[in-house]
Design goal:
Length: about 325
């Protein structure tokens, strides 16, 4: 999962999928003509995120889950600071408070998710995590049809756990659900940060906060392992695949792609994660687990389309669909 950020206009308009960094330009709705290029960029970004997550799992025996998170956040923070060069002056105390909370939420989301994938397969972990933004979307909406999407998601969770999660490590499940809750909080605070800081300045500053907050945990778990050249290089690769490259691809795509289409495409992330887990880590899923993931994807896409339909009913076809921020993978 990645950590791009969302900029919803209000919590009621949140949809369970990824969106770009705060302040990133979004397309209001160009025609379908010429959309293949942007769609390819979005899919490439999603693939990059999940294969970055798979690489992170393979790196954990070297540096530990907390060590991998530390390396990823540090490298991403350095790259974003270099690219964005955010202004440090001219911000109020409330602005700084918002970006600090955003950064701490980001750190918690990443830490919990990486603890999850250290214990359970990548596909189920992402599926459980996406329940956070999905629940936020359903709870924020006043439409009864969202109960259908909630029911589909719950059915998927039931199948994924085999009626009691006996096939999955309970601690891993708890960490994934906790990451999902942090993902929902991330959406809210990324929106607030996007309103207070221009472009991706708030994201860059929040990434620094996350990296600094997580550094003691990474040192405590991994210590000198974080300085091994091979580990540093692999950690940098995780940061590039899971953060830097997806941010760039999504930003380019959203200049020509309706945000609603983007959100629906990103609802496929659990399936991409399961594929990456199988190809890179040899994590095969049962038929039941595959069906469970399909149900959660259907619920996510349905919730997105419901939000789009709601906006059109109010005559807001040109307003970008505010979607959830990216995950931690």
């Amino acid at each position: 999962m990645n950590t791009p950020s969302a900029v919803p206009s209000s919590p009621a308009s949140v949809a369970p999928a990824m969106a770009p960094a705060p302040g990133a330009p979004t397309a209001g709705g160009p025609g379908r003509r010429g959309a293949l290029g942007p769609v390819g960029l979005v899919l490439a970004g999603g693939i990059s995120v999940q294969f970055g997550g798979a690489l992170a799992v393979s790196l954990m025996p070297r540096a530990g889950a907390l060590g991998v998170v530390t390396l990823r956040l540090l490298v991403a923070a350095v790259v974003l600071l270099a690219v964005c060069r955010p202004k440090m002056r001219g911000h109020s105390r409330a602005d700084w408070g918002t970006v600090v909370v955003f950064g701490l939420t980001m750190a918690a989301m990443n830490g919990l998710f990486y603890q999850a994938v250290d214990r359970i397969p990548l596909g189920p972990a992402v599926t459980l995590e996406v329940l956070g933004p999905l629940a936020l979307s359903v709870l924020a909406s006043r439409r009864a049809v969202n109960l259908v999407w909630a029911g589909l998601a719950l059915g998927g969770v039931f199948l994924l756990g085999g009626g009691g999660f006996s096939s999955l490590d309970p601690a891993g499940v708890a960490f994934a659900l906790g990451a999902g809750a942090m993902w929902a909080a991330y959406i809210v605070f990324s929106a607030r940060t996007g309103r207070r800081f221009p472009q991706a300045d708030g994201l860059a500053l929040a990434m620094v906060v996350a990296a600094v907050a997580f550094l003691p945990l990474g040192i405590a778990e991994s210590g000198p392992k974080l300085l091994v050249p091979t580990t540093v290089v692999l950690g940098a690769a995780v940061a590039v695949l899971s953060s830097v490259l997806p941010y760039t691809l999504e930003l380019l795509a959203l200049r020509r792609l309706p945000a609603s289409t983007f959100a629906i495409l990103m609802s496929l992330e659990p399936a991409v994660a399961a594929t990456a887990g199988f190809l890179v880590l040899g994590q095969a899923l049962s038929v039941t687990q595959s069906l469970a993931i399909a149900l959660v994807i259907a619920a996510s896409m349905g919730a997105v389309r419901t939000q789009v339909g709601r906006g059109r009913a109010k005559g807001l076809e040109q307003e970008p669909l505010p979607a959830a921020g990216g995950s931690a993978g």
